[in-house]
Amino acid sequence: NSMVCCASWDRDGELFATAGTSKSICVYETSAVMTLGARVHCPAVEFEAHSKVSALCYNPYVKQSIASGDYQGVVQLWDVQKETSTWENTTHRRRVWSIDFSHIDPTKLASASDDGTVRIFSTTTKEGVCTLQNRANVCSVKFHPTSAHMLAIGSADHRIHVYDLRQPSTPLMTLQGHRKAVSYVHWVGDELVSASTDNTLKLWDIKRNDPRTACVRTYVGHTNEKNFVGLSTNADGYIACGSEDNIVHVYAKHASSPVAHYGFADKPTPMSHNRRDKGGFISSVVWSPNSKHLLAANSRGHLKILSL
């Protein structure tokens, strides 16, 4: 029952990949899992990484390509069709927490690390294009959905930094308001959703020129004080996040309290009685490309596909 740290859908939602502390990247056929559920015992494809895997992202254009980042700082590309690793980079000195392809230029891959850097790679030349230096560990990176130059990072210094890659030396904007590390950032059009271990999500409008007035809304109702519990936004304006009480929470963009939730009914084991997480915590949530389904996983390796 290894923890699932990350998951990603392919561009059509026909396949999804999961990975975590088992060091394996498992690719499943969505239709088989939807039909057979727990009777699907084996993934369609399985890759063996060097270390525990902390980040995954399918290429939004090249259907068979997945990128991963691991606990040792290795960034890798995998070919699902050929069932092999096609490239790896060991520039990061510490764990890679987050990885993201640009939707506008899918040859651009960004990785965010505990070493305080965000590195942008070209999947064509297989070389580093640019490095962003942050003063604190970087927990999350996300390209803007309609700009190949703009990206946002979530930082352990409680801040969100928005960058234009054409001017990588300083952020375009820095957003402050969270009281603890920013573990995730996600774009919803020109707005940003951030998650923090201060038990909140926040919505930011980066078109407001004054960062002090950029926070539009704060979402409360889930529990998140120490773990990476997942964050995902969909085209319909729904925001999903995990919680340390093993419940998936869904917020509507315009409402500060959850509109839906789903509990993983894991029974505490004798081994987990003295642990704080008892039955586990939600560790990853990802909306499908068509926004109809939510893939959720928890710290005990359980996976569920949910419909809103």
From TrEMBL:
CC annotations in GO: nucleus
Cross-referenced Gene3D superfamilies: YVTN repeat-like/Quinoprotein amine dehydrogenase
Protein localization: Nucleus
InterPro entries linked: Nup159/Nup146_N, SPA1/2/3/4, WD40/YVTN_repeat-like_dom_sf, WD40_PAC1, WD40_repeat_CS, WD40_repeat_dom_sf, WD40_rpt
SMART domains: WD40
Repeat region (WD), residues: 175-214
Keywords carried by this UniProt record: Nucleus, Repeat, Transport, WD repeat
Source organism superkingdom: Eukaryota
Pfam assignment, any one: WD40
Keyword Nucleus appears in the UniProt entry: yes
GO process annotations (BP): photomorphogenesis
Domain Nucleoporin Nup159/Nup146 N-terminal: 81-207
Keyword Transport recorded: yes
PANTHER family according to UniProt: PROTEIN SPA1-RELATED 2, PROTEIN SUPPRESSOR OF PHYA-105 1
Annotated protein name in UniProt: Nucleoporin Nup159/Nup146 N-terminal domain-containing protein
Gene source species: Ostreococcus lucimarinus (strain CCE9901)
